[in-house]
Automatic annotation (TrEMBL):
Keyword GTP-binding: yes
Role: GTPase that plays an essential role in the late steps of ribosome biogenesis.
Organism: Streptomyces resistomycificus
Subunit structure of this chain's protein: Associates with the 50S ribosomal subunit.
Family membership: Belongs to the TRAFAC class TrmE-Era-EngA-EngB-Septin-like GTPase superfamily. EngA (Der) GTPase family.
Protein name per the record: GTPase Der
Pfam assignment, any one: MMR_HSR1
UniProt GO molecular function: GTP binding; ribosome binding
């Protein structure tokens, strides 16, 4: 069974929370007395899934002194766990000891769910919100004592807890980056794929322990192996028949879902169509890194080029952040620019802005360009944190309602300041009362 460790400073309520998780069925599965510490493991179940919970509460009276003991117990438990619930006392806020544990958690690289305990009333909610500052993602407000919020917290745990430890082996961790080559019929997807596959090496997949979807192809480009997902539908020319568009769009959606980066092919010789826009929107909404490639460049005359630029401005202004390459699958023009563009987009997609830097930037921005006054009040952005990557997600805390125009302004400035080329970014604003 997968193992969940519950760690945190003394008196934050770890044991109470563990009792909640196991539903007070204190069935001790393992009891391993150590020399100076004991670890107690329970079996728990939530939403039909079973896992083990390690209570580290017994280590609190370590002779090493409180801080050393917290670090030691955390380190020890984290090492053996598949996921960690880190408990912080929301009433007290993050202490130096908490910060020290956060550093340990980072180093260990295990998935962490942050529980902000002792949130018994409304005011506690905003106390919990401050714990975004720990950089561990969303704080889950809970009251271990009353049971409030523990269900939501456990849902979050199940999301990060592997089914069984073995299953993490051979899954997508590491492995080649996944590209979805998409675009409406006849833009040249199959030609482009053939071009890159013929000029470069198609890698015969021999990775031990991994199962590969036969419709994915491994192709080495620029010295790196990439996985082009769902290529069967690209190579096999589907003869146009009724409903073909519908299936093509389903296939596009499936490919985007499996990929990290979408390379969207547009036929530059024709007007940008509604279908092209739909495909772009699909990739943005799926939160994928994105590169736009304008194909059939060999056929363009000066006039068409002029109109194409105007069309790109009006139709794709919203995705001006996507790297652009002008290619020809026929002649091979600018094919070498494809990989650097993909790498740029993936880098943007994975960018993480440290909380300190983000808030220094937001502080200056808000001071120089305050939100317009509304109803005699001036809503302010108080604090922000990057809640995630792939794509970058930000949560901003504000003192009042922030208008859409101002949100767009913040997004634009964030893009200018940090390297978010080739990636959508999500910004959500929470209003603190
Ligand atoms: P798919 O449906 O997106 O896979 O498109 P195909 O690769 O089958 O290409 C559709 C048509 O466009 C074929 O007749 C190709 O020869 C042609 N085509 C593809 N790329 C180019 C290009 O860069 N230049 C020109 N002139 N024709 C191209």
């Amino acid at each position: 069974l997968p193992v969940l460790a519950v760690v945190g400073r003394p008196n934050v309520g770890k044991s109470t929370l563990v009792n909640r998780i196991i539903g007070r069925r204190e069935a001790v599965v393992e009891d391993k007395p150590g020399v100076t510490r004991d670890r107690v493991t329970y079996e728990a179940e939530w939403s039909g899934r079973r896992f083990k919970v390690v209570d580290t509460g017994g280590w609190e009276q370590d002779v090493l002194g409180i801080d050393a003991s917290v670090a030691a117990q955390a380190e020890y438990a984290i090492e053996a766990a598949d996921a960690v619930v880190f408990v912080v006392d929301a009433k007290v806020g993050a202490t130096d000891t908490d910060e020290a544990v956060v550093r340990l958690l980072r180093k260990a690289g295990k998935p962490v769910v942050l529980a902000a305990n002792k949130v018994d009333g409304q005011s506690g909610e905003s106390d919990a919100a401050y714990l975004w500052g720990l950089g561990l993602g969303e704080p889950h407000p809970v009251s271990a004592l009353h049971g409030r919020g523990t269900g939501d917290m456990l849902d979050a745990v199940l999301e990060v807890l592997p089914d069984a430890p073995e299953q993490t082996f051979g899954s997508a961790v590491g492995g080649p980056r996944r590209i979805a080559l998409i675009g409406r019929p006849n833009v040249g997807k199959s030609s482009l794929l053939n071009k890159v596959a013929n000029e470069e090496r198609v890698v015969v997949n021999e990775m031990a322990g991994t199962t590969r979807d036969p419709v994915d192809e491994l192709i080495e480009l620029g010295g790196v192996t990439w996985k082009f997902v769902d290529t069967a539908g690209i190579r096999k020319r589907v003869h146009l028949q009724q409903g073909a568009d519908y299936y093509a769009s389903l296939r596009t959606a499936a490919a985007v879902e499996k990929a990290e980066v979408a390379v969207i092919l547009i036929d530059a010789s024709e007007s940008i169509s509604v279908q092209d826009q739909r495909i772009v929107t699909m990739a943005v909404e799926a939160g994928r890194a994105m590169v736009i490639a304008y194909n059939k460049w060999d056929t363009l005359d000066e006039e068409r080029r002029y109109y194409l630029e105007r069309e790109i401005e009006t139709e794709f202004g919203q995705v001006a952040w996507a790297p652009r390459v002008n290619v020809s699958a026929l002649t091979g023009r600018h094919m070498e620019k494809l990989v650097p563009a993909i790498e740029t987009a993936l880098a943007g997609w994975e960018t993480r802005v440290p909380t300190g830097r983000l808030n220094a930037f937001l502080g200056e921005l808000v001071a120089a360009h305050p939100h317009p006054i509304r109803g005699g009040k001036q809503p302010r952005i108080l604090f922000g944190t990057q809640a995630g990557t792939k794509p970058p997600r930000f949560v901003l805390f504000a003192s009042g309602f922030i208008e859409a125009g101002y949100r767009r302004f913040i997004e634009r400035r964030l893009r200018e300041e940090f390297s978010f080329e080739g990636t959508p970014i999500h910004i959500s604003v929470r209003v603190r009362e």
